[in-house]
UniProtKB/TrEMBL annotation:
InterPro entries per UniProt: Cation-dep_OMT, SAM-dependent_MTases_sf, SAM_O-MeTrfase
Name listed for the protein in its UniProt record: O-methyltransferase family protein
Gene Ontology process terms (BP): methylation
Superkingdom field: Bacteria
Pfam families xref list: Methyltransf_3
Lineage: Bacteria, Pseudomonadati, Pseudomonadota, Betaproteobacteria, Burkholderiales
GO molecular function, one term: S-adenosylmethionine-dependent methyltransferase activity
UniProt keyword annotations, A-Z: Methyltransferase, S-adenosyl-L-methionine, Transferase
Gene3D superfamilies associated with the record: Vaccinia Virus protein VP39 (3.40.50.150)
Amino acid sequence: MNEQQWIAMDEYLCERTQAPDAVLDAALRASSEAGLPSINVAPNQGKLLQMLASLRGARRILELGTLGGYSTIWLARALPADGTLLTLEALEHHADVARRNIARAGLAGVVSVIVGDAVQTLEGFVRDGIPPFDFVFLDADKKGYPEYLRLVLRLSRPGTVIVADNVIRRGQVADTASVDPDVIGVRKFFDLLAENPRLSSTAMQTVGSKGWDGFSISIVSE
Ligand code: SAH
Ligand code: DHB
Ligand code: MG
């Protein structure tokens, strides 16, 4: 098994399960031209996010980590016309690129890109008592995952689905001796999942065009 085979398989799966999509292609091209790193979700993971949000019947979606808005577009497509997606991004440059991509996708009416440190923004949401979210995609800096989870839980309700990206990191997350702050952050995140009786969770490893990584899915109960 090697990475070339994973990529070939991913390409085959995407070709058989997705129609060509000029809007998503344009979003990736514009992101790359603007110098953004290509750390967006893979197309098949993007579609999985859309399908999960759609299965959930999500009307309010929260995303942490916008980058160029690629995953944002997938998620926003699951929303009804009067739905809302708030996506949080630390860097103004990323947010600018994302806003243009989202507008080109015809989703500016449902998506708001909010610039700033996600912790500060989430603390503001909690203070303001905004309505809870139905679906959350956690994909900002990995060392922040424990704090993000604590705050997101205060913005959740029974039935809220929380998906967290990049929780495998080429298997580094299983290394108890790791000193990588991202790995330590993800391990602490899993500790919080494990100890919280309000959360039912699973996690999956993936291989493909984004290497060896994966995601967790949690459902919030009473
Ligand atoms: N969800 C995107 C990829 C996000 S990459 C996609 O799949 O298409 C992670 C993003 O999180 C980067 O744009 C980075 O600038 C942003 N980020 C990092 N630290 C952050 C923080 N503290 N608050 C908000 N965003 C942050
Ligand atoms: C990184 C971030 C991501 O969200 C991702 O999907 C892959 C890599 C990173 O920061 O390296
Ligand atoms: Mg990611």
